[in-house]
UniProtKB/TrEMBL annotation:
A matching Pfam family: Peptidase_M20
Protein name: ArgE/DapE-related deacylase
Single GO MF descriptor: acetylornithine deacetylase activity
Boundaries of every Peptidase M20 dimerisation domain copy: 206-317
């Protein structure tokens, strides 16, 4: 290990307690998307700006995507620049984390603490957003803070990006920044998204599956369950459609690619809803949501065409005319779609650097692969900018009793610093 990297690593160790306190302060502030009934990220962004206001960043910029549903009508993203040894001419490293968190879910399952009342226990910080994405957000901050404290300018300018709206599609976050401020990004930038990984920090994600969320909306005619012949039970139609669609998608799109874990495309029915609030109602409406994570070999348009064709078959199978109206009606609504871009080259500079940093600091060989989850690394890959997803995670994200392991946060900060220094 180089002498400079060793000094920075020791300084990060010294900052451990401050890192924990910063993470605690950020977890206390819910940053839930308006899509989930929250106010957005404004308060959390303000807290972060307050934390770093006296830090010697060379530049701090705030970008506000308009969203009338959110607090103060905006979804903020913060960019904090710490210039490299050649000033603004230095090559650049982006480290992107997100401010938003998912809702807590069933509060009765939070047994260690309440979601937004963080506690430290057994070397872990518990709370919603602790691991996803607070752990990496704080790690990136203190990778830079350690260099600042020592008066060290890295080889590469570090751009810390703290963005909104990752959990619900990035429409008001990275996607908005790329669309509205393309001047921010350069083809030769290196990009790290520390929002996925494994327990020992040896997995580097270079590829993602396509993502497709869609809702099947079935309309029949609601009647009393004792007289089903007078209506059309939308629930039965939806069950027929969901069962045969699940079977079709798994059988037709069954290719395996060992780069990914799991190696095949996945098609999961995840949510159902209908207005029946009594056992004796045959509902006239029913909705089913599918979450599909599709290998890049397949076209999402082909999948959607198959969904619509099967919906037509099911409509024909249950077809009835009631009060002059032909039923059932079935609509397919796309909730989210992200067509997977080409993977990051496993021999690209960011991958090579990250492998080298992990080897130097941990003595471990990292491997590259693909995942089914979506991250905003995909937006950079679409631009032709190589991006990797990496962190050391116990994978408690989105779960009750989510936690960040303090050792992971501290050790990941050292790797992030190494990427800027090597």
């Amino acid at each position: 290990m180089s002498e400079v990297l060793e000094k920075v690593s020791l300084e990060i160790d010294r900052l451990r307690d401050e890192m924990v306190n910063t993470l605690i302060e950020l977890i206390k502030i819910p940053a839930i998307s308006p899509d989930y009934g929250g106010e957005g990220e404004y308060d959390k962004a303000q807290k972060l700006l307050e934390i770093i206001k006296d830090w010697p960043f060379d530049r701090v910029e705030v970008y506000e995507a308009p969203d009338e549903r959110a607090k103060n009508g905006v979804r903020p993203s913060i960019l904090a620049y710490y210039y490299g040894e050649e000033g603004e001419k230095s090559p650049r490293l982006w480290i992107l984390t997100h401010l938003d968190v998912v809702p807590p879910g069933d509060l009765s399952k939070w047994t260690v603490t309440e979601p937004f009342k963080p506690v430290v226990k057994d070397g872990k910080v518990y709370g919603r957003g602790s691991e996803d994405n607070g752990q990496s957000l704080v790690a990136s901050l203190y990778a830079v803070r350690a260099m600042m404290n020592l008066g060290i300018r890295p080889k590469r300018t570090v751009i810390l990006a703290f963005v909104s709206d990752e959990e619900t599609g990035s429409h008001y976050g990275v996607e908005w920044l790329i669309k509205n401020h393309p001047e921010l990004f350069r083809k030769d930038d290196l990009v790290l998204v520390p929002d996925g990984g494994n327990e020992d920090g040896t997995f580097i994600e270079v590829a993602e599956k396509s993502i497709l969320w869609f809702k099947l909306k079935v309309r029949g005619k609601q009647v009393h369950a004792s007289m089903p012949d007078k209506g059309l039970n939308a629930h039965r139609v939806a069950l027929d459609l969901a069962y045969h669609l699940d079977k079709l998608l798994h059988e037709k799109y069954n290719k395996k690619d060992e780069l990914f874990e799991p190696p095949e495309s996945t098609f999961e029915p995840t949510m159902v809803q209908n207005p029946a609030d009594s056992p004796n109602i045959a509902p006239g409406e029913h909705e089913v949501v599918f979450d599909c994570r599709v290998l890049p070999d397949y076209s999402l348009d082909d999948i959607l065409n198959d969904v619509k064709a099967l919906a037509d078959e099911v409509k024909e199978r249950h077809k009835r005319e009631i009060e002059g109206k032909v039923l059932p009606e079935i609509d397919v609504e796309i909730l989210q779609r992200l067509d997977a871009p080409a993977p990051t080259d496993p021999n690209s500079e960011i991958v090579v650097l990250l492998k080298e940093a992990i080897k130097k600091l941990r003595g471990k060989e990292a491997k590259v692969g693909g995942i089914g989850g979506g991250t905003f690394a995909a937006f950079f890959r679409k631009l032709g900018v190589p991006a990797v997803v990496w962190a050391t995670l116990d994978e408690t994200a989105h779960q009750p009793n989510e936690y960040a392991k303090i050792d992971n946060m501290v050790e990941d900060a050292k790797v992030m610093a190494a990427l800027a220094l090597l």
